[in-house]
Input
Amino acid sequence: MAILGNIIKGVIEVGGKLRPESNPVEEQKAVLHELLDTAKDTLFGQHYGFESILASDSPTQTYRERIPFHDYNKMASEWWEDIVAGKPDITWPGSPDYFALSSGTTGKKSKRIPVTDQMVKAIKSAGISQVMALHNFDLPADFFEKEIMMLGSSTDLNKRGGHLEGEISGISASNIPFWFKGYYKPGEEIAQIDEWDQRVLQIAKEAKNWDIGALSGIPSWMELMLEKVIEYHGVNNIHEIWPNLQVYTSGGVAFDPYQKSFNALLGKPIQIIDTYLASEGFIACQVRPETTAMKLITNNGIYFEFVPFKPEYINTDGSLVQDAPSLGLDEVETGEDYVLIISTVSGAWRYIIGDTIEFTDVARAEIKITGRTKFFLNTVGSQLSVNKMNDAVQHLEEDLGIKIPEFTLCAKRYDDGFYHTWYLGSDAKPNTEQAAKSLDAFLKDANKNYRVARTKALEGVKTHFVPQKAFAEWSGANKKKGGQVKMERVMGEEKFAEWENFLAENNFK
Output
């Protein structure tokens, strides 16, 4: 009998049931007030008059009118570079102990995003809230005695000046509570290995010594780790190594494109729970089993705004025009795409995180990630979001009977005009013409703007299939394997030329 598991499950059930019913709109008003009040004496708060915003008849509206949108470049050049240099009280009181390094999905140069003590506490608090929500999933008592594999970036953080730097998953793992360390795998020693392939090899070697009940990490890297463990031990699926695996907590990207390839690595179904941990904070997590949508964490140091995701509000580089309207939780609608804007206890203000989301339930503040602002393909008026691209690839998987967990594309100019040129990650060798026709037909039915573009400047679709590992190797060559690194779904022509050269030089084409 799982005595300890029953105790832990009982505590979680009681804690979950005792949590008060949330009011996301009121919680957000309180968060904005607390953010402005705490930061009113910083250079940023004085510059934009936080004290007078708080004293205004409508702080929410005054805040929108007075504070401009900030993408990373604007926030860094005008404010955060001084924080990196060690100056205190710039956008948040004091100086942060950590900076989250993020190259995102575009570019090689790492961004440095402040991570304050308050943000570390907020991430821990969000993690506890997610654990308490497990009472909704009716997991067996013995699950709560099993170990948890958290596959993130290295916890061996870099020292720079008076602070530490690393990816947010590494920072979070280095701050796990003492009581959790007995459950945490791969353990501190392996987690500190910086080189991805070496770290995964050590995980594979130790895998049989662990009783893993849950996995946590970005789907693309989690799949590669599971494949390595399966290959190393010569088994058919991961449940032959970890028979008690019952939960996978996905994060960072939509899980749907990986569902077919991920399930192929399992011996039996497991519970998938989506989370949304970004370099800027813990944004949302799934709290109910009857939906794959995630609940925004509205009472924990992050204030949210939402800009309708329309071409007239988006610049070519993915930033927002400054007069784009922003909405609060009491103004959004279901079924619409929004650019996510955040203000945080790390001193990010009206910050464009780069993701687009859609509300599935406004009253519950539940969302799903639909894409990236920079991955919005509108070169020839097709107005394709990543969400539509994911749907098209899932359709292609079913149509061809194959797994395609990764892809990228470009509106590439040829002698006879523009074609959407897709590279699809699959170890199968399907007919490329059939694939192109299938994608084209699906997108015509699913997107009226694409259908119109096909009668004008967009000549058609070209498809190429390359091994799945090509995408991981590209990430390794351009940024770094593992952690928070995600594959860019849409590339400009210059970057796409680099991608095609990379494939040719490494014999992937």
